[in-house]
Prior knowledge:
Order of helices and strands: HHHHH
Structural class: mainly alpha
Radius of gyration: 18 Å
Strand content: under 5%
Amino acid sequence: xxxxxxxxxxxxxxxxxxxxxxxxxxxxxxxxxxxxxxxxxxxxxxxxxxxxxxxxxxxxxxxxxxxxxxxxxxxxxxxxxxxxxxxxxxxxxxxxxxxxxxxxxxxxxx
Length: 110
């Protein structure tokens, strides 16, 4: 329990990627225009928490599942790394406003 409480205390003031995205979105678009992004992050975090809570004991008893998830997670991190290295920065200030960051937006450009 002590390790869990230490984790909660540290994570409560350490900025993560979601916190930084919410801060930047709020700064560039304002509070009301950033709500869709924040609700999307809330939905994702709650979904992961519920799935983990429901299947935690099964995850621990299945070593092959853990190995498969490590492989999938490593492949996904490699995919993200590739896109970070091949992405281009915004050319102008107007490009920033044209990028949609919504919960159901489907017009992504890679």
